[in-house]
Amino acid sequence: MGRAVTVATCALNQWALDFEGNLERIFRSIDIAKSKGARYRLGPELEICGYGCSDHYYESDTLLHSFQVLEKLLESPATQDIICDVGMPVLHRNVRYNCRVIFLNKKILLIRPKIALANAGNYRELRWFTPWSKARHVEEYFLPRIIQEVTGQETVPFGDAVLATKDTCLGTEICEELWAPNSPHIEMGLDGVEIFTNSSGSHHVLRKAHARVDLVNSATAKNGGIYILANQKGCDGDRLYYDGCAMISMNGETVAQGSQFSLDDVEVLVATLDLEDVRSYRAEISSCNLAASKVNPYPRVKVNFALSCPDDVAVPTCMPIQWRHHSPEEEISLGPACWLWDYLRRSKQAGFLLPLSGGIDSSATACIVYSMCHQVCLAVKSGNADVLADARRIVNDETYIPEDPREFCKRVFTTCYMASENSSQDTCNRAKLLAEQIGSYHINLNIDAAVKAVVGIFSVVTGQTPRFSVYGGSSRESLALQNVQARIRMVLAYLFAQLTLWARGMPGGLLVLGSANVDESLRGYLTKYDCSSADINPIGGISKTDLKNFIQYCIENFQLTALRSIMSAPPTAELEPLVDGQVAQTDEADMGMTYAELSIYGKLRKIAKAGPYSMFCKLINMWKEICTPREVASKVKHFFRMYSVNRHKMTTLTPSYHAENYSPDDNRFDLRPFLYNTSWSWQFRCIDKQVNTL
């Protein structure tokens, strides 16, 4: 009797609608799994077409090309003698489902549709798919002719069933089903399923990885079993970074762990596990045995195949390991860096350009690019041929080998300090020193001539010359003059991104990086169409507090000593005139709130779903030691006024790496009006009434 089963799971860097590339990566994962003795291979959710197809799921082409890829997989010798579990959309009786297609030796065993769809935050699966609501029910699915010709099957089982092999029983979950309160693995386990599989499209959020790991381990801790998780990895075409973490767990303990951040397009985990360990674990859980006697059985698809060998007593099996989690600072260093690399190589551009102000935000962005260069050099050193080929194409040199992160940074990263008469020498020096330490190609320029020209046009047309407040002008005049500076920097950033390499006699263009953090976006503390308007923004989902901690991490781990003075300087936009040669304007004074307060407002508004009144009620307790109720009321009102006045800016927010669950990203994550009644009269009256009572 076979007892040692060898199974494989993987994390693949799939790309939406890249059917050619997706197929090649699936084949590579199957080859690796088979070479390591696996008899079952699990891939990520919707891996054939790529998870992030969005409204392309509506197109019949997406379904057609997915079946064409499936045809290639079915007919290939590479997929023989291993159960392959792949993900793709399937239309059944004119209803579109998110499915797993499980096949063996040119025969489809089961098409299993997703039961619980992800439809919160960044996920919109109910827009494109319908959940399968017929529990433990199987129907006939009529295969397309191109598949019939390969398999010789006219129909195959479609629905909520499990696979019964010669030696064990496997049940399928798909991503969200693991997170659901009534996960299928609960009753599948009671019905004798020993191996649970989960194909995910789960994206990175700071401090989230442990939740996924805990869920997987807890799935088998109560009732035993083997749990196999596959996940998408990388940037597949939008704001999300899918963070891998493929894993295999048994009886509540991790036995194989995949990387969370990596430049490897294909990562395969293989584990050999003893089924008798599952059976003995379950034998002494009497409560589960009693519940099992009452469970409604699942339809079983019989498979004439074994995941084990007949004589496997001497086969070594895997032992539990301790999962290592990254710190938040490491996550910021690695996640956005990998996202940037995917974006750079897939956009076929020659590098990045960053307006480097000498402040924390743009410096943190520069450090993330430097971290990307570091990851590229490490990947090439470890023998990653894909990364080497991409690096050579980006720098336009077929013999190039990236070995030194600073030298590679010089080739792919341009930084630009855009001074004005309101800029201090301190920020100029900080930007220059940081550029030297990371190795970027650095440009110093002055924007005063362009600012004077634009303001001059206004003066000629109107006969009026606006002045800053310190020179007697109104707040409207001062703000307009600040905005002109900020917007000219955006125009110049794009001009230099397009033509800097041309001026240096090099081919290609550069992607412009933005550097507005999540807190400033929430408050609207940015000029619409200024340097926050860029191609992509790696820190747009990260708080100021986390960025400061990341800067400290870079000082210690990358030896970037230039960051020390940047850390100690108060954040400033440097858009108002200097006073005695020193900066008089600071961000927190301008905003009327601290960055620490902003993070709290953001989490209460989005994560706790608090409007003005609920936020006030929560904060009078949170801040009772430092603020009176009336002070809390004033702070909450100021935040909501500023948030609602500036919400329109979110409609043009640069696509940002998603890292925080209180992001104000208007594109799909945080859907709100952008024209508010900014007086909030009813809500604020409720607050005032409560203040008077208190």
From TrEMBL:
Keywords: ATP-binding, Ligase, NAD, Nucleotide-binding
Protein name (database record): Glutamine-dependent NAD(+) synthetase
Broad enzyme group: ligase
Pathway: Cofactor biosynthesis; NAD(+) biosynthesis; NAD(+) from deamido-NAD(+) (L-Gln route): step 1/1
CDD domains in UniProt: GAT_Gln-NAD-synth, NAD_synthase
Native source organism of the sequence: Leptocoma aspasia
Biological processes, Gene Ontology terms: 'de novo' NAD+ biosynthetic process from L-tryptophan
GO cellular component: cytosol
Residues of the CN hydrolase domain: 5-275
Family: In the C-terminal section; belongs to the NAD synthetase family.
Domain of life assignment: Eukaryota
Phylogenetic lineage: Eukaryota, Metazoa, Chordata, Craniata, Vertebrata
The keyword Transport belongs to this UniProt entry's keyword annotation: no
PANTHER family from the UniProt entry: GLUTAMINE-DEPENDENT NAD(+) SYNTHETASE, NH 3 /GLUTAMINE-DEPENDENT NAD + SYNTHETASE
